[in-house]
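Bench notes, afternoon.
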Amino acid sequence: MTHPPILYSFRRCPYAMRARMALWVAEIGVILREVKLSDKPPALIEISPKATVPVLISVDGPVLEESIEIMRWALGKNDPEGWLTGDDAELIARNDGVFKHHLDRYKYPSRYEDEADHGQVDHRAEGYAILQDLDARLAAQAFLCGETRTLADMALFPFIRQFANTDREWFDAQPIPHLQKWLEGHLSSDIFKSIMPKLDPWKAGDQPTRFGPAESMTAQ
């Protein structure tokens, strides 16, 4: 019996969401440690000084501190749906770079009041322009890289969910029907429902919380 990896996570963090989805589809069971971001456990800070989630600790590899690294690591071990065929580095980089920049400033404007562009850049409009591009892409195919969901879809979905939820009434009123349908499909998917359990924050000494498909946990 092997010791399952340990995943430090935060339920609502989009980076942690996409890591959990990749681990789930790869059927890799983990010990899940829910982190309270305002009170991070010393064990997390010790293993990863930057102490951002997700962080994955496995017995057969290095500590992984980036969500995309965790996704690729998991899918490299088992990729039953072929997610790696849609590892679109350009799409993911734009999401994690410029889109995330505008998303943060749209969702949390008070955090960025001291920035030089405060009040001069419409961050919702800048983010929406990227969503319009994705909508056009989805007009021709069901998912971002073809007719089945792949890594690109799962890497972007949690961030688009966050953008939409900032003002859902406004988002739903926009003429981006293909993206809206795509988002709703992910929100109602079994995998998304499966990776969103509500857990108490972990602390040293707690009983381990096993996370993953049932068959992945019984194999360990």
